[in-house]
Specification:
The chain has eight helices and six strands, in the order βαβαβαββαααβαα. By secondary structure, it is of the alpha/beta class. Helix 2 runs antiparallel to helix 8.
Length: 220
């Protein structure tokens, strides 16, 4: 029996419920045995000074996913000294799980920048691509520079993402609950000394306080 693994990368700077809830909602329709959360090491499209040190982002991600069956921390990208590229990560995971079937999960907003990624056309040769789409954003997700390429691999339902039946990896939009939370928003609130409770797990908030990350914590 093939193992199906969801792959969710990101800076997780910090991780929050906008990462966790969509990942949870993806598990059943995609028949995922697990979702791997991969905090980035170096990020090719973000300035280094915007990122908390990787040791903190890994620790916060571990705290954020603790207790949720099927959520696993993968430190593959975080352990790299060099910049992490999605295509390289998927190549390594393909080698590690030769009998597995990878499903690359990403926020649908990232489709707009995916054409800037290293060897982005190769990603569909290594994993199914499943953008997590908030209600009302379906059309915006379709009008991106990469869609002309990915449309040829598109299926309408997550259950149709089956490499054996398709003969190749596929592409499918997966609607998820709309949560207007972002790491940027959380960092901005912290810099203003504003409360961030219910935006991210309490364990993450406690870690941010303990290590004095992201600014003023008077009202955290």
């Amino acid at each position: 029996m093939r193992t199906r693994l969801g792959i969710l990368g990101g800076s997780f700077n910090p991780p929050h419920f906008g990462h966790l809830r969509p990942a949870l909602e993806a598990m059943a329709p995609l028949a995922l045995e697990a979702v791997f959360f991969l905090p980035s090491g170096g990020h090719p499209l973000k300035e280094a000074e915007q990122l908390a040190p990787v040791v903190h982002r890994v620790a916060m991600t571990r705290l954020a996913i603790q207790g949720q069956t099927g959520f696993e921390l993968c430190e593959l990208d975080a352990a790299r000294a060099e910049i992490s590229y999605t295509v390289d990560t998927l190549r390594v995971l393909t080698e590690r799980f030769p009998l597995g079937e990878l499903v690359f999960l990403l926020g649908s907003d990232l489709l707009a920048e995916m054409h800037r990624w290293k060897a982005w056309q190769e990603i569909i040769q290594l994993a199914h691509i499943c953008p997590l789409v908030r209600p009302g954003h379906e059309e915006a997700a379709l009008h991106t520079p990469v869609m002309d390429y990915l449309t040829r691999f598109r299926v309408e339902k997550p259950a149709e993402l089956d490499r054996h039946q398709l003969g190749h990896f596929g592409f499918c939009l997966l609607p998820v609950t709309a949560l207007g939370i972002s790491s940027t928003h959380i960092r901005q609130r912290l810099s203003r000394g504003e409360n961030i409770r219910y935006l991210t797990p309490d364990a993450v908030i406690a870690y941010i306080q303990q290590h004095n990350l992201y600014g003023n914590h008077d009202q955290i």
